[in-house]
Design a protein that fits this description.
By secondary structure, the chain is mainly alpha-helical. It has a domain at 137-206. It has 11 helices and no strands. The protein has helices at 2-10, 14-24, 28-37, 41-55, 73-87, 92-112, 117-129, 138-151, 160-173, 177-188, 194-201. Helix 2 packs antiparallel against helix 3 (28-37).
Length: 206
């Protein structure tokens, strides 16, 4: 019985794969449909985390719980990412509060499972985008994304392409230009889907 349960937990999620496909192809309407179909808290958090960067619809950040005492590492990481988005939507005073909340939730996620793919993804993003005074560290971010790339084949809803696109940006920000250039060329040769192609052509400001 235990083996069956473990296999069920490790099996790829068709829902998460649909979310990843819609995200990578910038299909906001499809993501909204998936949000309406989300049957679990984890699925809802995942779609909101993917849909917000595409639409910047602030209503997706309404009614976020301040914590998830019973949440998995993955749910904690996704909630941390959503609070980080919300910090960018608000006043400077609230941004500090929300940013600290995001960091605290992420730390709880790391304590639960530092190798969960979503923990690695969102921790890497946090290390890349946080202010220098708060511990910005693109070199460590690159290492997190590199680790994520080794897990992405079995991760739920995260592709190796996504992990390496983020790794490329982190390497560039860390000043590792030769490694970044080689990875950039390799990714372009793989014909990335629209979102990742746009990311490689016109990366976000860090």
């Amino acid at each position: 019985m235990l083996v069956v349960l473990l296999l069920a937990l490790m099996a790829p999620s068709p829902f998460a794969q649909e979310v990843q496909h819609a995200y990578a192809h910038q299909e906001a309407d499809t993501l909204r449909t998936l949000l309406s179909r989300a049957e679990s808290r984890s699925d809802s958090l995942l779609v909101r985390y993917r849909l917000y960067p595409i639409t910047e619809d602030a209503s997706l950040l309404d009614n976020l719980p301040s914590e998830l005492p019973d949440g998995s590492a993955r749910e904690q990481a996704l909630l941390s990412g959503l609070w980080s988005y919300r910090a960018g939507e608000t006043s400077i005073l609230n941004a500090v509060q929300y940013g600290r909340r995001s960091a605290n939730i992420l730390e709880r996620a790391r304590k639960q499972d530092p190798d969960d793919p979503y923990v690695l993804l969102i921790e890497g993003q946090s290390l890349l985008f946080r202010p220098a005074i708060a511990g910005r560290d693109p070199s460590t971010a690159a290492a997190r994304f590199d680790r994520l790339a080794t897990l992405a084949d079995t991760a739920i809803g995260i592709t190796k392409m996504e992990a390496q696109v983020w790794q490329w940006l982190a390497l560039r920000e860390a000043g590792q230009m030769d490694a970044a250039k080689q990875l950039h060329e390799r990714l372009l040769n793989q014909t990335p889907p629209p979102l990742y192609r746009q990311f490689l052509d016109d990366p976000p400001e860090v």
